[in-house]
Design a protein that fits this description.
The chain is α+β, with helices and mostly antiparallel strands. It has ten helices and eleven strands. About 45% of the residues are buried. It binds adenosine-5'-triphosphate and L-homoserine.
């Protein structure tokens, strides 16, 4: 067991990108940091306002995930000093739980002497999160197309695409939380054939458009009928932004992950000001306080430093 301190930096992510429910996601330059070191006693130090209210005992997600990794490696679970921070707010649809899971797995794997490969860690994270669309970008960076394997013991099949160079993400982050669980419970159990065909077509077109840098197609390709229509009642302003973002400087728009953050993609930084005033008008109309951030895609994924 290593006695060194491991520092892991993990990008946040935006999942689904509209039609790619549970299968598509993009890493963003908004980071979580997890530092971990074997210690005599477990202490969890959470830095900054975003992690306020998160447990600082052994029920903390970071500790739970690290402990599970040591157990799976056949090692005794050590006491740990964990220090963590997050630039991304939690429960907003920016993949904070996936980033925490990836950060804790990668840090614990280093302390344990690297018993697991990166693909094994990816599979462990996907199992924990239930789907690969946030975990994939946090691990590998860029845009990830991934799905669950046919059999449980198979590796997670994925492809990483480089985001189109000039593309920017304007994220509209409302000041209220929406848990992924609540947003998933809003979805129906059964879909019509027309809606399934609609999403297969749009998701396929979106992946092809992103692969070829065809930002002009995103406005159409990002249409979705599997989750956004059912989540819209939980996210005031979503319908208006999806309907008119492309008339106001965006090349496409979607609910980010399970929401309530709304993602608007632009072809350059210069479109963002016009888009911000449109978004402001919509959100004010609903009396919702919010913040916006203009983010570049992250292309590196998880980064590890051993100190
Ligand atoms: N750094 C962290 N340390 C401990 N727990 C965390 C950390 N980051 C996230 N979590 C846990 O993850 C929960 C948020 O998960 P949830 O899936 O609801 O939202 P999200 O991951 O931010 O959004 P989405 O999955 O829609 O992108 C928090 O309430 C907290 O329990
Ligand atoms: N694909 C997931 C992302 C959030 O975890 C969802 O939309 O529920």
């Amino acid at each position: 067991m290593s006695s060194k301190r491991v520092r892991v930096t993990v990008p946040s992510s935006t999942a689904n990108l509209g039609p790619g429910f549970d299968t598509l996601g993009m890493a963003l330059q908004l980071y979580s940091v997890v530092e971990m070191q074997v210690s005599e006693q477990t202490t969890i130090e959470l830095i900054g306002k975003e992690l306020q209210g998160t447990p600082t005992d052994k029920s903390n997600l970071l500790y739970v995930i690290a402990a599970e990794l040591f157990q799976q490696a056949g090692l005794a679970v050590p006491e740990l000093h964990i220090r963590a921070s997050s630039e991304a707010p939690l429960t907003r649809g920016l993949g904070s739980s996936a980033a925490a899971i990836v950060g804790a797995l990668v840090a614990a794997n280093h302390l344990a002497g690297e018993p697991f490969t990166r693909d094994q860690l990816f599979a462990m994270a996907v199992k924990k999160e239930g789907h690969p669309d946030n975990v994939g970008p946090s691990f590998f960076g860029g845009i990830i197309v991934a799905t669950m394997p046919e059999k449980e013991d198979q590796p997670i099949p994925y492809i990483c695409l480089a985001p189109p160079a000039a593309m920017r993400a304007l994220v509209v982050i409302p000041d209220y939380a929406l848990s992924t669980e609540k947003a998933r419970n809003a979805l129906p159990q059964v879909y019509s054939k027309q809606d399934v065909i609609y999403n297969v077509g749009h998701s396929s077109l979106l992946v092809a458009a992103l692969a070829q840098g065809r930002l002009d197609l995103l406005g159409q390709a990002m249409g979705d009928r599997l989750h956004q229509p059912y989540r819209a009642p939980l996210v005031p302003g979503l319908e208006e932004i999806l309907a008119a973002a492309t008339d106001n400087g965006a090349v496409g728009a979607a609910l980010s992950g399970a929401g309530p953050t709304i993602l608007c993609l632009t072809a350059s930084d210069s479109e963002c000001e016009r888009l911000k005033s449109f978004v402001d008008q919509v959100m004010r109309g609903h009396g919702i306080s919010y913040q916006t951030m203009v983010l570049q895609p992250d292309e590196h994924g998880v980064q590890v430093e051993v100190q």
